[in-house]
């Protein structure tokens, strides 16, 4: 999938400036396709040049004029063609999972902290997605919304984002329980070894109290 299709799909919600599109991406599209504002501006210019978007200029008092972009019929046809192509498998590259892969030979406390940070991020995303879903539903229950809404695509992708973050939290809780138990076991074993070594001298021989084990003099 190219960024262009993601931009076209986002603009089906209605015309938007580059600034508005960046906010739209951050609010919803970012849960399945990320892009910087600079990338979005470049893509808008490219799509307009190819005739997939049209733009109109809005004059603003005391502020620079802004351009509002709309999907053209050619852009809609490009999306229809895109929807007919086979979907590519998702490519996952996650540095947290690399850290977890090596956790038995690295700093377990640091990895535990990274998992906790990921869970906090997932909680924050879930709260944001819940607010967006509430605005979409606008007081309706989900069934009424899905039956009567003009467009359900944004809601369905939002629900996918919610389920992803919920699964992150479930996975994170299970992972933390395992890592913390293994860490505690390591500490216990290490402490036991220290206690065992405390009863031995530097040469590994059992330390004796003064006079212990000495037989009577002949």
Give a verbal description of the structure:
The chain is mostly helical and 218 residues long. 61% of the residues lie in helices and 6% in strands. It has 8 helices and 2 strands. Strand 1 (53-58) and strand 2 form a beta hairpin. The chain is elongated.
Task: Provide a compact summary of the structure.
By secondary structure, this protein is mainly alpha-helical.
Strand order of the largest sheet: 1-2
CA radius of gyration is 30 Å
> Which structural class should the secondary elements be placed in?
mainly alpha
Rounded average pLDDT: 88
**Integer count of domains:** 2
Q: Helical amount among residues, as a percent range?
A: 55-70%
**Which range does the strand content fall in?**
5-15%
Question: Which segments are poorly predicted (pLDDT under 50) over 5 or more consecutive residues?
Answer: none
So what's the overall shape? elongated
Quantity of strands, as a count: 2
Tally of DSSP helical segments: 8
How is the main sheet built?
2 strands, antiparallel
Task: Note the run of SSEs as H and E.
Answer: HHHEEHHHHH
Which features characterize this protein?
218 residues, mainly alpha, Arc Repressor Mutant, subunit A, 2 domains, two-stranded antiparallel sheet, 8 helices, 2 strands, 61% helix, 6% strand
Helices and strands in order:
Elements: H1 3-11, H2 18-27, H3 37-49, E1 53-58, E2 66-71, H4 73-83, H5 95-101, H6 108-137, H7 142-148, H8 153-197
Antiparallel strand pairs: 1-2
């Amino acid at each position: 999938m190219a960024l262009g299709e993601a931009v076209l799909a986002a603009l089906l919600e209605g015309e938007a400036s580059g600034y508005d599109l960046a906010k739209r991406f951050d609010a919803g599209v970012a849960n399945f396709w990320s892009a910087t504002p600079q990338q979005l501006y470049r893509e808008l210019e490219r799509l307009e040049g190819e005739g997939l978007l049209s733009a109109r200029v809005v004059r603003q008092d005391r502020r620079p004029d802004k351009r509002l972009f709309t999907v053209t019929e050619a852009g809609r046809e490009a999306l229809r063609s895109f929807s007919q192509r086979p979907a590519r498998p998702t490519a996952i590259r996650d540095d947290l999972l690399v850290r977890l892969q090596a956790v038995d030979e690295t700093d377990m406390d640091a990895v535990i902290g990274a998992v906790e940070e990921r869970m906090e991020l997932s909680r924050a995303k879930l709260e944001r997605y819940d607010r967006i879903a509430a605005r979409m539903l606008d007081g309706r229950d989900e069934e009424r919304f899905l039956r009567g809404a003009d467009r359900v695509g944004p809601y369905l992708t939002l629900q996918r984002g919610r389920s992803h973050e919920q699964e992150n939290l479930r996975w994170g809780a299970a992972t933390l329980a395992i890592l913390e138990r293994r860490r505690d076991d390591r500490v216990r074993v290490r402490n036991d070894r220290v206690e065992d070594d405390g009863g031995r001298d530097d040469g590994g021989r059992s330390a004796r109290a003064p006079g212990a084990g000495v037989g009577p003099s002949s």
